[in-house]
Amino acid sequence: MSDVAPRTLVVDDSSSVRKLLRELLRERDHKVTTVGTAEKALEAHLREPFQLMLVDWTLPGMSGLDLCRTVRSQPGGDHIFILVITGRNRAEDLQTVLDAGASDYLAKPIDPEILGTRLLIAERAIADSRRRAEERHEMESRLAFADRMASIGTLTAGVAHELNNPLMYVLSNLRLTREEIDAQGDAEFLELAKQQLDEAIHGAIRMQSIVRDLKTFSRVDDEQRGDVDVQNVFESSINICWNEIRHRATLERDFGETPVVDVNESRLGQVFLNLLINAAQAMPERAVSENRITVRTHTDRDGWAVIEVADNGTGIEPDRMSRVFEPFFTTKAIAQGTGLGLSICKDIVRDAGGIIDARSEAGRGSEFVVRLPASTRADVPQRAQAPPAVTIGTSATVIVIDDEPLVGRSIRRALRGHEVEVFTSGKDAIARLCSDRPFDVVFCDLMMPEVSGMDVFRQVSERRPELASRFVFMTGGAFTRQARSFLEKTKLSCLEKPFELGQIRDLVRERAEGASSNLVAMGGLEPPT
Question: Are strands 305-311 and 292-299 parallel, antiparallel or unpaired?
Answer without folding.
Answer: antiparallel
